[in-house]
Amino acid sequence: MASNTWSIIFLAATLVALASSVSAKVFTVGDEKGWTLNFDYEAWAKGKEFVVGDQLVFKYAAGKHNVFRVNGTLFQQCSIPPTNEALTSGYDVITLATPGRKWYICGVGSHCESGGMKLFINVLPQSVPPTPLVSPAPSPVPSGKMFVVGDNYGWTLNFDYQAWATGKEFVVGDKLVFRYPIGKHNVFRVNGTQFQQCTIPAVNEALTSGYDVISLATPGRKWYICGVVSSFSAMEYLFYLSEFLYVTASLLFTMIFSNLLYSYVLDSW
Ligand SMILES: *[C@@H]1O[C@H](CO)[C@@H](O)[C@H](O)[C@H]1NC(C)=O
Ligand SMILES: *[C@@H]1O[C@H](CO)[C@@H](O)[C@H](O)[C@H]1NC(C)=O
């Protein structure tokens, strides 16, 4: 009975999560033309309202183009950032996780300067909570598997993600979904060193939408961390727990001891 109730609660939560992910808009950059040469992306973006949680899809023949997220200066100069990695899958899905101005360019040859493969958008903050839809909208058919990190637990404290990842086969084209309550956690892509030290990169922007979809665009090792400094981290929790046990134990001890004293007193009376 109790487990049934929990199943229903979990199902409801999953439906809500699904509904809110579905209500976000998906923009295929360039619509049916996709990400290509000699297309006016400025005109394409004009009049469109991009909101946090929406997704951009860059569609192109893999190997022919790629996608770099750049800053305003690099966008003007059509130059590729030294650190940022290109998206190259041919079906790159970017979740707009934070409000503000975003710039994307193609880093192949002179596709940016002479081919016009540059996109600038302004992402608005999410004003109203997304309204759940009654019927699920058709979503783009992504190739590859979708991994919800932590499965039913999502992206949360005190979960063994190493054990979760063990034995899973992640292939280019697959997607990772980080699910968590907005504001409670976030997701940073880091390198091996930063992963070891749990340090946040200076340049990298966090994903914060609470339903962050990452397309695994390139082969190789990838590291992700939560950048939220929790006042209640796993370590502190353990410490708190042991302190609590200590207090309980000494309390118990005091109670037993005073009981003994009390009975001793009673006995002697
Ligand atoms: C843009 O990025 C480049 C390379 O990372 C950096 O040198 C430059 O200072 C940045 N410009 C702005 C305005 O952030
Ligand atoms: C990891 O990133 C940091 C900051 O960007 C950099 O200083 C460090 O050299 C990088 N380490 C590796 C192994 O790439």
TrEMBL record:
The keyword Transmembrane helix is annotated on this UniProt entry: yes
Residues annotated as domain Phytocyanin: 25-125, 145-251
InterPro entries recorded: Cupredoxin, Phytocyanin-like, Phytocyanin_dom
Membrane-traversing stretches: 244-265
Classification via Gene3D superfamilies: Cupredoxins - blue copper proteins
Keyword terms: Membrane, Signal, Transmembrane, Transmembrane helix
SUPFAM superfamilies in the record: Cupredoxins
The name this protein goes by in its record: Blue copper protein-like protein
Organism: Tanacetum coccineum
The organism's taxonomic lineage, starting at the top: Eukaryota, Viridiplantae, Streptophyta, Embryophyta, Tracheophyta
